[in-house]
């Protein structure tokens, strides 16, 4: 079977690798960038200091634990202690996130938050269902809702909390912000970083594949056999797995899908200029720091020294990159929840193409992490034969299962 995979990010690389291993497919990957990796590419400053634009760590977030041994088949993974901090207001000190009660007590709002959390504990009811504000105020209290979520929501999602569904909070378990004593989020599972960065993962996974970088796919036709149109000519295949944006692939015929995202600003620091962003009560420096109030366009600041070199990096003064994420809707990072109807129209178009299957964060317009991307590729390969033989309605069901669900 001759397969063309569009995009050589983690989704495309996983699909290519699994299709070759499990189905003996002959795979060509077409990647518009100069090298594989997509969001996972490790970059370097002009001075040669490494940083990532997107992912920081590998963990089991919402995907499959099998992703960890899979990645370890290609690169070593070193455990990192990832603590998050937050500066809830511009002139307040940094506290752990999820918030630490003892640190909170030193803030002007500490008492109010403690009172509200105690009342919620005593009440013992389930979180409210009406909308995200209801969900948050009944699980972390009005003060933390205002400080940690209200301004952030407006600046990043452009939405009031009343306009977001309660499910948004439940799915991300936002109530964990008020969990005492465990500063690890977004995952309580161990976090890992591949020393030397993510690029060797792609070099090894894609070793021996026909990988063509600098090739942009404009569209896929699928009459008797799929034909992939690229800026370097047309390519025929038996199957096309596409991880490119689903709306672009379909010529935006139902309009553009909306995204939210960040551009980044980087600052290279060396030696004594590397003070930590702050420290958790046990002394471990924060790997990243949130600034949730609406008045700053910066959402999060990351210290890659801690992630790349471990918690004593600031003490050792190793060169590091401090990266600031600045709200920019032109960067397609996070799919929004209110695009379900448009996404469905695109999916209905795609399932009518006999031998074309979309996956990945752009192909299925889904918020993914490495573990859920791996799981998505595996589910696709598991149901591929059934998918190719099925009618449009069954294909939609199978795609929902491959995606995980229709939610974001
Ligand atoms: C800010 C941020 C932080 C993150 N942090 C983490 C984290 O800490 N841990 C974690 O596990 N995950 C994290 N993720 C998620 C992780 O980046 C994704 O799950 C993963 O990279 C998705 O891989 P993908 O292949 O689906 O998409 P991408 O990495 O976007 O790959 C798609 C590829 O397709 C190519 N392409 C697109 N269109 C075309 C075309 N027309 N022709 C040819 N090629 C094309 C692109 O150039 C790209 O290389 C983060 C994501 C973001 C945005």
Could you outline the blueprint of secondary structure elements for this entry?
Elements: E1 2-6, H1 10-23, E2 26-31, E3 42-44, E4 50-52, H2 67-72, E5 78-80, E6 84-86, E7 95-97, H3 101-104, H4 110-123, H5 132-137, H6 142-157, H7 166-172, E8 191-193, H8 199-205, E9 210-213, E10 217-222, E11 226-230, E12 233-236, E13 239-242, H9 246-249, E14 259-260, E15 262-269, E16 288-290, E17 298-303, H10 304-309, H11 313-316, E18 320-327, E19 334-335, H12 340-350, E20 356-358, H13 360-363, H14 370-389, H15 392-403
Parallel strand pairs: 1-2, 1-13, 2-9, 6-16, 13-20
Antiparallel strand pairs: 3-4, 5-8, 6-7, 10-11, 11-12, 14-19, 15-18, 16-17, 17-18
Helix pairs in contact: 1-14, 14-15
Flavin-adenine dinucleotide (FAD) binds near residues 7 and 40.
Describe this structure in words.
- The model has no long low-confidence stretch (mean pLDDT 93).
- The chain has a 6-stranded mixed β-sheet with strand order 7-6-16-17-18-15. Strands 9-2-1-13-20 form a 5-stranded parallel β-sheet, with helices on one face. Strands 10-11-12 form a 3-stranded antiparallel β-sheet, with no helix packed on it.
- It contains 15 helices and 20 strands.
- The protein is an alpha/beta fold.
- 33% of the residues lie in helices and 21% in strands.
- The structure holds flavin-adenine dinucleotide.
- Flavin-adenine dinucleotide binds at residues 6-12, 30-33, 38-40, 54-58, 216-217, 243-244, 333, 360-362, 368-370, 373.
């Amino acid at each position: 079977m001759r397969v063309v995979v569009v995009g050589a990010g983690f989704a495309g690389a996983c699909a290519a690798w699994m299709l070759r291993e499990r189905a003996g497919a002959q795979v060509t990957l077409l990647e518009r960038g100069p090298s594989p990796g997509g969001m996972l590419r490790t970059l370097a400053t002009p001075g040669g200091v490494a940083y990532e634009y997107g992912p920081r760590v590998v963990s089991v977030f919402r995907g499959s634990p099998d992703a960890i041994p899979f990645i370890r088949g290609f690169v070593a993974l070193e455990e990192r202690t990832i603590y998050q901090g937050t500066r809830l207001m511009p002139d307040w000190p940094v506290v752990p996130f999820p918030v630490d009660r003892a640190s909170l007590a030193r803030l002007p709002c500490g008492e109010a938050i403690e009172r509200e959390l105690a009342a919620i504990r005593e009440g013992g009811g389930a979180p409210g269902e009406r909308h995200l504000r209801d969900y948050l105020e009944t699980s972390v209290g009005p003060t933390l809702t205002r400080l940690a979520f209200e301004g952030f929501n407006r600046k990043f999602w452009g939405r009031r909390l009343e306009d977001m569904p309660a499910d948004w909070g439940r799915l991300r378990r936002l109530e964990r912000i008020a969990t005492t004593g465990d500063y690890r989020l977004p995952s309580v599972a161990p976090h890992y970083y591949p020393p030397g960065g993510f690029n060797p993962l792609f070099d090894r996974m894609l070793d021996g594949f026909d990988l063509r970088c600098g090739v942009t796919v404009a569209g896929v036709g699928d009459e008797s056999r799929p034909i992939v149109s690229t800026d370097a000519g047309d390519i025929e295949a038996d199957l096309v797995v596409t991880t490119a944006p689903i709306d672009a692939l379909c010529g935006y015929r139902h309009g553009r899908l909306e995204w939210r995202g960040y551009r980044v600003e980087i600052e290279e620091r060396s030696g004594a200029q590397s003070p930590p962003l702050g420290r958790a009560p046990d002394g471990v420096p924060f790997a990243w720091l949130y600034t949730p109030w609406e008045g700053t366009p910066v959402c999060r600041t990351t210290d890659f020294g801690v992630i790349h070199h471990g918690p004593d990096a600031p003490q050792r003064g190793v060169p590091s990159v401090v990266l600031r994420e600045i709200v920019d809707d032109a960067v397609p990072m996070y799919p929004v929840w209110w695009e379900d109807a448009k996404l469905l129209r695109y999916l209905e178009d795609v399932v009518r193409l006999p031998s074309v299957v979309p996956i990945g964060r752009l192909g299925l317009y889904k918020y993914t992490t490495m573990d859920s991307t791996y799981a998505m590729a595996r589910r696709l390969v598991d149901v591929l034969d059934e998918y190719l033989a099925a009618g449009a309605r069954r294909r939609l069901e199978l795609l929902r299962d491959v995606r995980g669900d229709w939610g974001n």
